[in-house]
Write a structure and sequence with these properties.
alpha/beta, Glutamine Phosphoribosylpyrophosphate, subunit 1, domain 1, Rossmann fold, 3 domains, eight-stranded antiparallel beta sheet, seven-stranded antiparallel beta sheet, binds fructose -6-phosphate
Length: 624
């Protein structure tokens, strides 16, 4: 969580830092700040409790001229409440060493105790502030007094103090640090939290992710854990935490910055819902035919022989990606391949039971989710092969996994995941199809029909989206409800979970997703007259039982909105219907989730919620 930026160059430093923070706000948005230094070593630091827009206004009232380096931060609170005092940047006692941080310093209480004992004064409740004081201590131990130091020694001394400070820190961190005495260098370091350097001409950038500076450069270098970047105007040097210089390759990012803008939609979430046909198309393109051949080998090194060799598949993921994982389990089991799906944060003991023959599939839009990364490390420690499904090139997950299958959805900015979920599903269907065909679970004509069903999905998504107005009307009718139930069965049960998660996240109402068959074992007791119940009931083997479960809920007063197709509509009796184009049952999740996303969106809109930045959340969850 939290977004950090850094800049050095001759352009408008404050504007660049603030613009970067606006693009990183999806990572956290409860407070923010920047600090910049000018060539005469004057430091300007501004922080606010609240959004980056407020910071922007504050800085505009007293513009800083001539700043040539600086750092910025947008926060998702971990230690200390969201407030101006706890907002980053944080400084040492002198107010000259300035730190922004994403992550958690696990030993901060020990460090703080020692620092307090040697006379340091703290101004915040954060773990981050200790870092500034530890650097201050290291500067002291190098016998540095800012005014007395030779100018050619500023950079080596700052670097060495920073490097020595890093050795004291335990936990996860991405750091961007300036020292007012040394405006010609910004230092950055990474340990378990994402950090990327952008390479410009006569200017360079630091950020938690590339969207912060894509407007200025697409040439980037991803830091690995245990690496430092010494960022100057005309170049960047990389080192290990031991101080050894490392040569690093830059990569060119294909996304452009307009892909991360709203394009006429009121919210990113709505824009991203509308981009789902394209997400599926892009994820499938060139990877589908022939199913079961060596098509994935060139891209991800997974040959048909390797695909045949796994004895089971274990999915791990969090949140919405976990719902994709649950559908993955159903698909693989459908083809007779043993599969399980676990929430990454609850995986710990299960990892020990993995055999070498297990393929672990870790699904993560960001590729930076700490729980997922931790579970991946545990799986690797017992010798499992890890395949990552992710949307983010260069993310930590891509570097830790043995194989990577990218979803090509473009940047997802709305905190509530939509198009990334469809991309994850497309990738899972693709993988399941290749596994099934390679292992003989699909004959060649069945494989062809499976591929045809998938290729139709983008068009069917467009047809589903055409019902937006109708869905909006139904949603508005329920805008004042405080409780919602979502039910389904079999391959759509995870969609019921996803429908409930979407509405919880962006409307702050209570919602439950249930396997329809479980309702009678307890949860049916919560139904009251008029309670909205969304039932996902397309044609297929689950339909008759679903129709019965819907009757049971109606008999207790539930107001049922049924997600059906033309055929299943004849079987299901509901007060309202959302009718989707028909496809085979196995493929229905690729469509049924869309009305639930739109439903959640329009309930949140009617409630005037902050849809793209819901309270208490952050897009990329880099803490455990
Ligand atoms: C919900 C949502 C989250 C994420 C979860 C995992 O809309 O976005 O539940 O799905 O935090 O994130 P990634 O996929 O980045 O690992």
């Amino acid at each position: 969580m939290c977004g950090i930026t850094g800049y050095i160059g001759d352009n408008k430093t404050t504007d660049i830092l603030i613009d970067g923070l606006k693009r990183l706000e999806y990572r956290g948005y409860d407070s923010c700040g920047i600090a910049v230094v000018d060539a005469k070593n004057a430091l300007y630091l501004k922080r606010v409790s609240g959004r980056v827009d407020a910071l922007d206004k504050l800085v505009a009232q007293e513009p800083v001229k001539g700043a040539q380096s600086g750092v910025g931060h947008t926060r998702w609170a971990t230690h200390g409440a969201p407030s101006e005092d706890n907002a980053h940047p944080h400084t040492d006692c002198s107010g000259r060493v300035v730190v922004v941080h994403n992550g958690i310093i696990e030993n901060y209480l020990d460090l703080k105790e020692k620092l307090l004992a040697s006379g340091h004064k703290f101004k915040s409740e954060t773990d981050t502030e200790v870092i500034a004081h530890v650097i201050e201590e290291k500067l002291k131990s190098l016998h540095v007094q800012e005014k007395a130091i030779r100018s050619d020694m500023l950079e080596p001394v700052f670097f060495e103090a920073f490097r020595r400070a890093l050795a004291e820190l335990k936990g996860s961190f991405a750091l961007s640090v300036i020292w007012a005495a040394c405006p010609n260098m910004v230092l950055a370091a990474r340990m378990y939290s994402p950090l990327v350097v952008g390479l410009g001409k006569g200017e360079n950038f630091i950020a938690s992710d590339v969207s912060a500076f894509l407007k200025y450069t697409k040439r980037v270098v991803f830091l690995n854990d245990g690496e430092i970047a010494a960022v100057k105007k005309d170049g960047v040097d990389f080192y290990t935490f031991q101080g050894k210089k490392v040569a690093k390759e830059s990569v060119t990012i294909q996304w452009d910055s307009t892909m991360a803008e709203k394009g006429g939609y009121k919210h990113f979430m709505l824009k991203e819902i509308h981009e789902q046909a394209e997400s599926v198309e892009n994820t499938l393109r060139g990877r589908l035919l022939p199913l079961g051949g060596n098509i994935l080998k060139a891209e991800m090194g997974l040959s048909a022989e390797a695909i045949k060799s796994f004895s089971s598949v274990q999915f791990i993921a969090c949140g919405t990606a976990y719902h994709a994982a649950l559908i993955g389990r159903v698909l693989f089991e459908n083809f007779g391949i043993p599969a399980s799906a676990d929430v990454a944060s609850e995986f710990t003991d299960r990892a020990k039971l993995l055999g070498k023959g297990t393929l672990v599939v870790a699904i993560s839009q960001s590729g930076e989710t700490a729980d997922t990364l931790f579970a991946v490390r545990e799986a690797k420690a017992v010798g499992a092969t890890v395949l990552a499904i992710t949307n983010t090139v260069g993310s930590t997950l891509t570097r830790e996994a043995d194989h990577v299958l990218y979803t090509h959805c473009g940047p997802e900015i709305g905190v509530a995941s939509t198009k990334a979920f469809l991309g994850q599903l497309a990738a899972i269907y693709l993988l399941a199809g290749h596994f099934a065909a390679a292992r003989g679970a699909l004959t060649s004509s069945e494989a062809r029909s499976y591929a045809e069903n998938l290729l139709k999905v983008p068009r069917l998504i467009e047809e589903t989206l055409a019902q937006e107005k109708e869905i909006a009307k139904i949603a508005q009718g329920f805008a004042s409800s405080e409780h919602f139930l979502f039910i389904s069965r079999h391959v759509n049960y995870p969609i019921a979970l996803e429908g409930a998660l979407k509405i919880k996240e962006i409307s702050y109402v209570h919602a439950e997703g249930y396997p329809a068959g479980e309702m009678k074992h307890g949860p049916i007791a919560i139904i009251y007259k008029g309670m909205p119940l969304l039932a996902v009931a397309p044609s297929g083997r689950a339909l008759d039982l679903m129709a019965g479960n819907i009757e049971e809920a109606k008999a207790r007063g539930a107001e049922v909105v049924a997600i059906v197709d033309e055929d299943s509509r004849k079987t299901v009796k509901a007060s309202r219907y959302i009718t989707l184009p028909k496809t085979e049952e196995l493929f229905t999740p690729l469509l049924t989730v869309i009305p639930l996303q739109l439903f959640a969106y329009y309930v949140a809109l009617a409630k005037k919620c902050d849809i793209d930045k819901p309270r208490n959340l952050a897009k990329s969850v880099t803490v455990r």
